């Protein structure tokens, strides 16, 4: 499909780990909690045998990541189609509006957690994922966009999103900690950086728009410090989060 992220197998020839055995995937506990879905730990542990083990390492159902993965490898090989397109469209809209590179990179990364990690508290998780590699201002703006999305700022051209009325109901009130984050952000010198993420967020769910992620290569190069060892292998405080995206099905 034209609109899907391009999948490619960087090291397709290498054998997969745990050869000759069935490899069971235990769902993440957080994804079943409260949904009525059964917790699978006990039944799966009961099925374990010398021929049936828990998955560790590359999963043949997923595209293989390069050994030293870069930011755009995660876009192409791991992110869900919605997040992939949303982030590219958001960044492109900011770029076309003549915004500074710091706004473009913030838009490109603002929902990165939703791509293949966690939706809950997505501004905070997204900020944490990228904090070692971007400026403090960009990480701050990404964190606070989560709260700012609930509060209109007509002077900046941002109305409360219609989508949120559909998502949460027309009478939804954000919790106190989000209201507090909004007040903090309003009083902060970087307010506009975060606010502009929300401005370009609004217009970014368009179908049938194909954007080549490579168009952001230079902006990423100047505004995102890609570690030489690859994301996940640089020993940073968030490396384990990137490895979780590489091997989301590891048992431990
Ligand atoms: Fe967001
Ligand atoms: Fe967004």
Task: Describe the protein.
The protein is mainly α. Helix content is 45%, strand content 2%. It has 13 helices and two strands. The protein has a two-stranded parallel ribbon with strand order 1-2. The mean pLDDT is 93. Residues 86, 110-111, 201 line the site of one fe (ii) ion (FE2).
Briefly characterize the structure.
The protein is mainly α and 252 residues long. It is built from 13 helices and 2 strands; from the N terminus they run E-H-H-E-H-H-H-H-H-H-H-H-H-H-H. Helix content is 45%, strand content 2%.
Keywords:
252 residues; mainly alpha; two-stranded parallel ribbon; globular
Distance between the termini: 34 Å
Classify the secondary structure makeup into a structural class. Answer: mainly alpha
Give the overall shape: globular
- Beta-strand portion reads under 5%
Count every beta strand, where a strand is a DSSP E run of 2 or more residues. Answer: 2
Task: Let me know the largest β-sheet.
Answer: 2 strands, parallel
Would you spell out the secondary-structure blueprint of this structure?
Layout: E1 22-24, H1 29-32, H2 41-47, E2 52-54, H3 71-77, H4 81-96, H5 101-109, H6 112-116, H7 122-130, H8 136-148, H9 162-168, H10 176-186, H11 191-201, H12 217-223, H13 239-246
Parallel strand pairs: 1-2
Bound molecules: fe (ii) ion (FE2) (2 copies).
């Amino acid at each position: 499909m034209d609109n899907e992220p391009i999948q490619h197998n960087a090291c397709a020839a290498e054998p997969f780990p745990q050869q000759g055995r069935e490899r069971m995937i235990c769902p993440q506990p957080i994804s079943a909690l409260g949904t009525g879905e059964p917790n699978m730990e006990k039944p799966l542990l009961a099925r374990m045998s010398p021929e049936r083990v828990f998955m560790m390492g590359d999963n043949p159902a997923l595209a293989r990541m390069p050994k030293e993965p870069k930011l755009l490898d995660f876009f192409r090989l791991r992110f869900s189609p919605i997040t992939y397109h949303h982030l590219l469209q958001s960044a492109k809209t900011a770029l076309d509006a003549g915004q500074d590179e710091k706004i473009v990179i913030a838009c490109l990364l603002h929902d990165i957690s939703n791509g293949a990690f966690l939706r809950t508290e997505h501004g905070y998780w997204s900020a944490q994922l990228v904090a070692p590699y971007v400026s403090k201002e960009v990480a701050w703006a990404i964190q606070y966009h989560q709260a700012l999305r609930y509060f209109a700022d007509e002077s900046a051209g941002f109305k409360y999103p219609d989508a949120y009325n559909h998502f949460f109901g027309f009478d939804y009130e954000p919790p106190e900690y989000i209201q507090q984050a909004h007040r903090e952000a309003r009083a902060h010198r970087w307010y506009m950086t975060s606010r502009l993420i929300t401005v370009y967020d609004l217009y970014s769910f368009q179908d049938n728009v194909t954007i080549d992620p490579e168009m952001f290569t230079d902006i990423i190069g100047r505004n995102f410090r890609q570690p030489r060892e690859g994301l996940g292998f640089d020993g940073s405080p968030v490396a384990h989060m990137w490895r979780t995206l590489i091997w989301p099905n590891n048992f431990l």
